[in-house]
Amino acid sequence: MQRVLALFLMMTTSVLAQSTAKTAHHKWAVVIHGGAGVIERSSMTPEAEKEYRAGMAEALHAATSVLDRGGTSLDAVEAAIRILEDDPNFNAGRGAVFAADGTNQLDAAIMDGSNMKAGAVADVTSTRHPISLARAVMEKSQHVMLAGAGADAFAASVGLEQVPPSFFFTERRWQSLVRELKQEHLPIPSRPAGAPPAPDHQAFFDTPDNHKYGTVGVVALDRSGNVAAGTSTGGLTAKRWDRIGDSPIIGAGTYASNQSCAVSGTGIGEYFIRYTVARTICALVQYKGMSLQAAADLVIQKQLAPIHGDGGVIAIAPDGQMAWSFNTPGMFRARQAEGGSAEIGIYRDEP
Ligand code: ASP
User: Fold this and answer.
1) pLDDT at 10 (0 to 100)
2) Fewest beta carbons within 10 Å, which of 1, 169, 196, 272?
């Protein structure tokens, strides 16, 4: 009898020790994307590749520094996305693609998996950091989603930096717009006020910009075990009629819940909206008990690929699982977990 009691006590203590360890300390982890698309070695110069990798490394570092000093996943997501929004190589903030009328119309969303709070903005044109605006909507308004001039006015009212339209201008994106409008036989708007004069050499006009889906997104897990997700984008080149994509739609391009996972997507937003991609992945984890990678692959490879829903996702779960999945030739991506080293990839054949 005594031996049975001793055994019982030993087992209970070890179960207790395990669960205490679980609640006391989670290892942080973070995954980043910089868009998916026809990203192939043949269409990338070594200089451009270096710049993309450096941009992702910098964003990853911003997130890991926050997490490593015990910061929240929400802060890590925002810090990394702000860096990518300022990087002209990615389709978010400065360097965003142009709408058909020659403006940059920016979308973003952020979600806190610890309390299911979310904030989103669409068609913002003067706020430097749409991701911070999405966070302000979540924390400082009673709403989830604001759009257009109203969203920018709210940004100004809470003290977020406002910039002139030319701040977002890059020659490369402008030439992509011109090419796309010519193909669609649509009128070409005049260059935005304050933009630099058109270059007189041909280089810009000949470089195809295949990296169509350059949206940025970050998912993170902090030491308290909370996950968060954020996404920021200029949307699709030559979009019209104030088109809004999946990035700011909670459950489509962005989603986070401590019950399941956090996801950020990139690709043709219309498919991601109709297939509620981010929420579906988390629902598969939550209700079907699937692994994060299997859930992401099911939606991206089995559901979206056959119907040409081009794109990809990054995902993270409260137990530390990290995943990415994309059905395009490439996706700019990076990840790191506490105690591990940074992994950065672009092409399909990289791990
Ligand atoms: N998903 C974004 C959208 O449809 C585009 C992208 O990922 O680049 O607006």
Assistant:
1) 53
2) 1
Contact indicator for 234, 92 with CB cutoff of 8 Å: yes
CA of 235 to the centre of ligand 1 (A): 5
Token pair for 35: 């868009």
Active site residue 72: no
Which domains does the chain show, CATH number per domain?
A: 26-347 (3.60.20.30)
Closest CA to 26 of 75, 77, 68: 68
> 26 vs 275, which has greater pLDDT?
275
- Count of other CB atoms within 10 angstroms of residue 198: 12
- Nearest alpha carbon to residue 245 among 76, 117, 92: 92
Q: Residue range 151-161: average pLDDT?
A: 98
Q: How much is the pLDDT for 42?
A: 84
- For a substitution probing ligand 1, which of 32, 98, 173, 236 has the most ligand atoms within 8 Å of its CB? 236
Closest-CA residue to 191 (of 183, 182, 199): 199
Strand segments, DSSP code E, in the chain are: 29-37, 106-112, 117-124, 145-147, 216-221, 227-233, 254-256, 262-267, 311-316, 322-326, 330-337, 343-347
- Mean per-residue pLDDT over the chain, rounded: 91
Say what the pTM is. Answer: 0.91
* Residue 18 pLDDT class (50, 70, 90 cuts): very low
Over pLDDT 70: what percentage of the chain? 89
